[in-house]
Write a structure and sequence with these properties.
Layout (H helix, E strand, L loop, with lengths): L2 H10 L7 H10 L3 E3 L8 E6 L2 E6 L9 H13 L4
Helix pairs in contact: 1-2
Protein name: YcfA-like protein
Pfam family, one: HicA_toxin
GO molecular function, one term: mRNA binding
């Protein structure tokens, strides 16, 4: 099992210490691209792939995502048959 697969398996387990950087790596490994509106977007970012949009807020000052954010991303990925 490679790094990408391990990271996706970790995401599926819904850990409480899953960081934004890990989420970005996992989504990019699935073909998503990070998009934000430059300086005016603040902490809001979107990950885009085809017609799929995943919106997140970058956590600050902590680096870990909140539980609901992980669940939302997993729900979208499952709905789109990506995991």
């Amino acid at each position: 099992m490679g790094k990408k697969e391990k990271l996706i398996e970790r995401l599926k387990s819904q850990p409480k210490d899953f960081s934004f950087d890990e989420m970005q790596s996992a989504l990019e490994s699935m073909g998503f691209e990070l998009f934000n509106k430059g300086k005016t977007s603040g902490s809001r970012v979107k990950f885009l792939k085809d017609n799929i949009v995943i919106s997140l807020h970058k956590p600050h000052p902590r680096k870990e995502l909140l539980e609901y954010q992980i669940k939302q991303v997993l729900a979208i990925l499952e709905q789109e048959d990506l995991i």
